[in-house]
Specification:
Structural class: alpha+beta
Number of domains: 2
Radius of gyration: 18 Å
CATH superfamily of the largest domain: Macroglobulin (MG2) domain
Strand content: 35-45%
Order of helices and strands: EHEEHEEEEEEEE
Helix content: 10-25%
Number of helices: 2
Largest sheet: 5 strands, mixed
Number of strands: 11
Length: about 160
């Protein structure tokens, strides 16, 4: 039998919150759902998330769930294209939305074809920012964020070719 817990919060990235709460309470959480979510802005349409637990949670587990949800600092990532020319001119734009008031700084992490990484801080204004990515090295690049735990579960793959 599932027990539902409602936590009021104005913004979320439901997939990231689901991952974080399941990690904090392994085996106890069935999932996070919303009554409506705008994936472009992170705004919860009814101002809350519903967390389904396999059974009634203990007081300590409820506190862990609430603390994890309260700490949730969502990031919404999008990218305008997944294939670019490796000519140092063509680029893709990585768009970042951090909708929580007082959101932590956002740093993009690019994993290069050789496995090494590059980081780029995103200048945010009003919770919105973007960075451009270009390269002269052919290969596959993975774009994500630094310290993604409880922020986003999204990464993008960019193919740079001739």
């Amino acid at each position: 039998m599932t027990t539902d817990y409602t936590i009021n919060m104005p913004t979320a990235n439901p997939a990231a919150l689901d991952t974080a709460i399941k990690a904090a309470l392994p085996g106890l959480i069935e999932g996070v759902r919303t009554e409506g979510w705008n994936p472009s802005t992170g705004v919860l349409l009814n101002g809350s998330v519903i967390i389904g637990a396999a059974n009634t949670l203990s007081g300590a587990d409820q506190a862990t769930m609430t603390t994890t949800a309260t700490a949730h600092d969502p990031i919404i990532l999008s990218i305008d294209k997944t294939s670019i020319a490796a000519d140092g001119i063509d680029f893709c734009t990585i768009n970042v939305i951090a909708p929580k008031a007082g959101a932590a700084a956002v740093t993009i992490v690019v994993t290069k074809p050789d496995g090494t990484t590059l980081t780029q801080a995103v200048t945010m204004s009003g919770g919105i920012g973007s960075v451009q990515f270009k390269t002269q090295i052919v290969g596959t690049y993975v774009i994500g964020v630094q310290n993604p735990s409880n922020r986003t579960s999204v990464t993008f793959t960019i193919q740079a070719g001739n």
